[in-house]
């Protein structure tokens, strides 16, 4: 039986459940005053499409993961560097650049990592612009989950929305895309954490169960 994938992305080998409704915002941004962009999700890349491409086409982006980098590249964006899938790791990359480098972090209303504030506290120049917000979708509310199901969670938000309407039964197998998502689970739940922050890595785990 196929596993349930709680993600804004889909996969042919899973039962796809989009846990979030995304609303894009369009705050005023002066791209010219920044050296680089910071992108931590595909939704941030989509939010950029609301702006004049000519205003940011020369701006390279520090992307949190390979998936986000691919999404930005497909949107004709230029990649600066690619992180390892965790917001907390971006601080190390940013700190390798001069402190007067000006960064623009395009983010959601709620974020899982406070790397931007931590890095600012060390003297680096990072502005933040909220370009989208998310809420739990009705898809997850009406979902009927079979017994002994395998559940794959790809973000803290996917866990939060699942728990808003459902419980994690003892007979479920839980797989999470990374440590940040693991922290969103209730105490006592022991998931399997993917070796890489990708859906493909989560699916590889199933073959060994």
TrEMBL record:
Q: Which UniProt keywords apply?
A: Lyase
Uppermost EC category:
lyase
GO BP annotations listed? tetrapyrrole biosynthetic process
Q: Does the keyword Lyase apply?
A: yes
Give residue ranges for domain Tetrapyrrole biosynthesis uroporphyrinogen III synthase: 28-203
Give the EC number(s) under which this enzyme is classified. Answer: 4.2.1.75
**Molecular function in Gene Ontology:** uroporphyrinogen-III synthase activity
Q: Which Gene3D superfamilies does the record match to this protein? A: 3.40.50.10090
Under the heading Pfam families, the entry gives: HEM4 (PF02602)
Keyword Lyase on this protein? yes
What is the protein named? Uroporphyrinogen-III synthase
Q: Which organism is it from?
A: hydrothermal vent metagenome
């Amino acid at each position: 039986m196929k596993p349930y994938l709680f993600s804004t992305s889909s996969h042919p080998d899973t039962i796809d459940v989009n846990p979030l409704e995304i609303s894009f915002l369009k705050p005023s941004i002066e791209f010219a005053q920044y050296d680089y962009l910071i992108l931590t999700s595909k939704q941030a890349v989509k939010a950029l499409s609301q702006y004049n491409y000519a205003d940011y086409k020369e701006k390279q982006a520090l992307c949190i993961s390979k998936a986000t980098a691919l999404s930005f590249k497909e949107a004709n964006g230029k990649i600066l560097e690619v992180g390892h899938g965790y917001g907390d790791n971006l601080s190390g990359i940013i700190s390798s650049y001069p402190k007067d480098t000006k960064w623009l972090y395009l983010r959601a209303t709620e974020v899982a990592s406070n790397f931007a504030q931590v890095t600012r506290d060390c003297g680096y120049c990072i502005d933040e612009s909220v370009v989208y917000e998310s809420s739990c979708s009705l898809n997850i509310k009406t979902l009927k989950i079979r017994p002994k199901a395998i559940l794959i969670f790809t973000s803290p938000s996917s866990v939060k929305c699942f728990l808003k309407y459902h419980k994690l039964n003892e007979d479920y197998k839980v797989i999470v895309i990374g440590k940040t998502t693991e922290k969103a689970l209730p105490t006592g739940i022991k998931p399997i954490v993917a070796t890489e922050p990708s859906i493909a890595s989560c699916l590889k785990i199933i073959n060994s169960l």
